[in-house]
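step=encode ok
step=design start
structure_in=
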């Protein structure tokens, strides 16, 4: 599973730890982008994703390692 490397401010580029959930930069209130370890998902094959259940959780292999939560959303 990919890991979140850090959060990055969209305005000033300040990098923050992803350990604590947050969505705004404490320095200038810019939106935070999530920066992932992209090397971790290089081995995931398109064919493997296509064979999974038709829901957003078919992409779980390329999402951070979390317990899935669903509200019954569709594909």
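sequence_out=
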């Amino acid at each position: 599973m990919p890991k979140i490397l850090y959060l990055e401010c969209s305005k000033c580029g300040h990098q923050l730890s992803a350990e604590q959930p947050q969505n705004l930069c404490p320095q200038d209130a810019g939106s935070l982008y999530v920066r992932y370890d992209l090397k971790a998902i290089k081995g995931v094959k398109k064919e493997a994703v296509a064979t999974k259940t038709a829901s957003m959780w078919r992409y779980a292999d390329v999402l951070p390692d979390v317990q899935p939560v669903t509200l019954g959303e569709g594909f």
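step=design ok
step=annotate ok -> The chain is about 5% helix and 15% strand.
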